[in-house]
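Worked example 4.2. Below are the chains of a multi-component assembly; read each line carefully before continuing.
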Amino acid sequence: MSRPTDLVQGTLDLLILKTIALEPMHGWAIAQRIRLLSRDVLKVQQGSLYPALHKLEHQAFIKSAWDTSDNNRRAKYYSLTRAGEKRLARELESWDRLSAAITMVARASEL
Amino acid sequence: MRVLRVIGYRLRSLLFGDRLDDEAREEIAAHLERQIAANRAMGMSDDEARRAALLDVGQVPQLGEACRDARGLAWWDALRSDTRYAVRQMRKRPGFSAAAVVTLALGLGATAAVFAVVDTVLLRPLPYAAPDRLYALYEINTRGNVGRTRATALNFLDWQQQASSFSGMAAHVGTGFTLTGRGEPEFALGQQVTPGLLDVLGVQPMLGRGFQPNETEAGRNRVVILTHALWMRHFGGDPSVVGRPSSINGQPYLVIGVMPPSFTYPAETYQLMTPLVTKGNVSDGPPISRSARYLRVVARLRDGVREESAREELAVVGKRLSDTYADSNATVTIGMAGLAEDMTAGAQKNLVIVLVAVGFVLLIACVNVAGLTIARGSARERELSVRAAIGASRGRLVRQLATEGLVLFIIGGAIGLTLAAWGVAALASELPASLPRAAEISVHWRFLAFGAALTLVSGLLFSVLPALSIARRGPASGLAGARGTVSGGRAVQRTRGILIAAQIAAAVVLLAGAALALRSFDRVRKADRGFETAQTMTFGFVMRDRAFPRAADMKAFAGRAVEALEAAPGVGAAGLTTHLPLADNNLENTFTVDGSPVEAGQDPPIAGVRGVSGHYRTAIGARLLQGRDLLPSDTERAQPVVVVTADFANRYVRGASPLGVRVKMGGADSSDPWRTIVGVIADIRHGGLDQEARPEVWMPYAQLPDDLAATWLRGLNVAARTSMDPEAAMPALRAAMRALDAHMPLMNVRTLDELASESTAERRLETSLLAAFASIALVLAAVGLFAVLAFYVAQHMQEFGVRLALGATPQGLLGLVIRRGLVLLAMGVALGLPAALAVGRGMSTLLYGVEPADPVALGGAVALLSAVTLAACAVPARRAMKTDPLVALRND
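Applying the procedure described above to all two chains together yields the following structure tokens:
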């Protein structure tokens, strides 16, 4: 429904998986981390983030648990499942291929 | 692992969707707070921080929805909301909903109930091992019109030995048994069977053992296997009776086994089995010969052998026997038929008729509800248009409307199935005993599965179609015109018109079918049966060879019995017969008529043989047409005499008067003495009230050939005409019999009226089912037509108002509406009549003395339908007539 038009289809999943691969994280922190790491280039809309999180959880690539955060507030922490780790590896691989291909095409058209 | 987790999530979403929604809301709220805090930390004011955060998050409820969609539950949510909406719609229009639910409950319930019967009798496999490998074998006599007969004992033994296509073959014949020694003497029907029967059927006794091969030898045959029902009833379910002797027919029989409760063969009425003696000879066994045809044969086809090759082998065996035993077997071939088919052949056609009829009822019910749904759809045009205008896709609207229809079907189906489950139990106890396997009828999982499938399939079909028809109209149609525009909904009107015509056609078929069945039933009841059933008590007794070793003893006892019975208080005429009409018991023989030789190529006279005594003719109210009755003076030593039925005299006796003509049993060279015809009586419908009478020869019981009396005719039936309620005379009749022989059980105690009623039980059941279905169809069709016309009138109030204002008369409007109804009626009748003719031809088994195209039945059906549907037209037509132009024009 509300897919990010500014992200290549499916890359949001990759970004989420990659981000929480380091440590369990709640939604807000995921969005912040993606923004920081991309130096403000990638802004994940909350309207896309949460549906994506719920979908990944229902595909059993990530799991969630409620916990108290740094400033003593309840938050839902997402972490990778085993299936999620494998999925991340596959996504990374295919992203490498895809981006390389896109780069080749993009450069070729410049000539 | 992942699969399990996914399933877990799915289940959680389905079951705890609300909690997950709450969690998602909480998660988003937490996010919002963090964002606000972060914004504030960057130096925004409180308001700015909040606004920016909200801007980023978007609408919280929509986000929640998106999360739900992400959980893959969109369809489920839609279904839930559609269902909730449908239930709300139902509540809003209780009249419409109740009508639809009742209609569907009737249609679905009736269909499911009939299915339960059809399923048990025709579809469910017989309760034996690999029942499709079981076949009934029989003899076919190609001479004249004899046709299919049972097998003779010697022929059976040859088949068993020679036909290698079968892994097992068994024969059996029904016999009566008297059980004594435990309380009241009890009479029970049983089977004498060859030892392999249980192996052929593939069943085992629950207690004890089956028969052993050497138990067919005379002297070793005093063993018995009980059915569960008899064991429970007569032996109190005592397991210790197995292995102990029990007194049967006055002889000690060793009880060797008890069958499980599920076992019945060949019908529930047979309650015990003893070995059929085929080696050596016992005086009370049936003759082991090639001429007495009394055995039913069941055989199991060997694995890997095809039916055709078995048939071919039987043809070869039959030919060999014809060649070897030309005397008896020259014209005898061997036939085979699947056992299930053989057992239910009689019931099949009539059950199919009933099933077709109930199918029509269901069709009418479904069409009715579809019609109602379309009408409701038109009334809700605006609502639907608005929904479409604000973005509901056409598919979404169809889905919602179909869900509404389906909810009606499911509620109707649930109610219908509940009623049917209850009705099936009631029906099972009412079913005539002649219906095969009736005792097995019960609420089975197949009934529930069928009912559920029927509900869903018919529900989907008759919900989606109207939904499509409603949603076909674009959003504009409902918004553009005011309510009740003249042009609006013409297509819908046409669809409904076709539905109503189809419904009326189906009702015509049902009514015509029911009318044919009713007229047939009436004909059967009024047919001249040759005797009077009123005020006549009947019962039977058997003279066992232990107590009555010689025919002379039996004849003496019969003489004493008549005297004692006639002396009983309240009894007028009483008499004995070897074969009571309608009691499913017959003996026919060939006869030779003196002076009327059989012409070449013609069959010899065949007639039922009856040994009668006392005032039997008067007791059953048979009419004497010529000559005199058989009298007590026609004793064994007197000149042999007979009374014949008119049919016998007309068919077989040439010459001016049959009186004085001599006949004898068997061929011209038979040892039977010449017997002089002294009287002629009216034809007797012995086989059933709807069976044509067959020729009969009555002879004095005392003059029956001794060997015949001592073998085949040990059972006698009493008929006693009473001056009071026949049941009330029974104690006196019992007392009279007990005074003669205290150990003789009386069986089949029934009035002749009951026999007559049993004889038509199946026909009556089928006729009343058809009549019930036809009545339902009539009401539903009338309601359907009423609804469509009422809707038409409501939609056209404005038009009527304009017409009235422009000078139309109220009568004109009345005519307009009635004409509409008449056109639909005419269309329906035009469609229905040819179908009714075809169905009438298909139900030939149920017709008696009535042609499928019987004008009274067809005309009556159409007339009744027309009257009722016109009455249904009258109300809306009157409403149209009373249109107030001012009110109608102000409307809107």
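Take a moment to check your reading of the output against the notes. DSSP finds 28 helices and 23 strands in chain B. The two ends of chain B are 64 Å apart (CA to CA).
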